[in-house]
Amino acid sequence: MFFVGEYRVTFSGQGRIIIPKKIREALGNGRTFTLTKGFDSCLSGFRNIDWEKAAKELISQSSLELQKSETKRHLFSSAAIVEIDAQGRFVIPKILLDYASLSNKAAIIGVGDHFEVWEPKRWDEYIKKIKP
After folding, report:
1. DSSP H helical segments within the chain, as ranges?
2. What's the pTM value of the predicted model, to 2 decimals?
3. Residue 115 counted as domain residue
4. Would 1 be classed as within a structural domain?
5. How many domains in the chain?
6. Strand-strand pairing, 115-118 and 105-110
7. Low-confidence ranges of the chain (pLDDT < 70)
8. What pLDDT digit, counting tens, does each position of 14-48 carry?
9. Residue 42: which residues within 8 A CB-CB, separation 6 or more?
10. How many helices (H) and strands (E) does the chain have?
């Protein structure tokens, strides 16, 4: 199943938000997923199995190439296994909240093989920027 759609959510506590039903369905039956820094100052969420596959591929690449080393640092330094509670909520670690400038609202978007969590105004600006 693919991650699709755009959803606006409100934080229900310090760093805690609900995962929209369609995103939860795409995550499958697991109670955890991997959340890390994305690009464009957003967060990226992956099924653990997809994260492990991508991580192995990234690790196998040469660390002698600057761009690949920087990508590894960016993604691995902040990666966290996040647990989904019985109400379908999860807590975003503080380092990731700060990175994405998240405080009380978020835009969660499906991106096919993963989903992203954006600060809503930043997401709206990004959409305007790429609109033809």
Report:
1. 21-27, 48-59, 66-76, 94-100, 120-130
2. 0.89
3. yes
4. no
5. 1
6. antiparallel
7. 61-66, 68, 74
8. 899 999 999 999 999 989 999 999 989 999 999 99
9. 100, 116, 117, 118, 119, 122, 123
10. 5, 8
